[in-house]
Amino acid sequence: xxxxxxxxxxxxxxxxxxxxxxxxxxxxxxxxxxxxxxxxxxxxxxxxxxxxxxxxxxxxxxxxxxxxxxxxxxxxxxxxxxxxxxxxxxxxxxxxxxxxxxxxx
Length: 105
Known about the structure:
The chain is an all-alpha fold and 105 residues long. The chain has a domain at 2-57. Helix content is 47%, strand content 0%. The chain has helices at 2-25, 27-41, 48-57. Helix 1 (2-25) crosses helix 2 and helix 2 runs antiparallel to helix 3 (48-57). The protein is elongated, with a radius of gyration of 28 Å.
């Protein structure tokens, strides 16, 4: 019984960590999955309790977004910066090897 409880607790911790990482690192995928679950629960043929759960799970804004949420729809990131003009007088760095001093090295 104790081994089963240990395995269940470790499994819950791993599942929680995976969901947390998914939510934090892939917010758009998280919202899409959450919206899919909410749509399944909020079907007209479902009982009222399941519909309330679906409405509660529904993300606030599936199409909208804010800065840093990974939606890439606001356009606030702007275009990539233009490369600096090449300086014609610039010379590449050249590193010369110095001979080792002393016979023992």
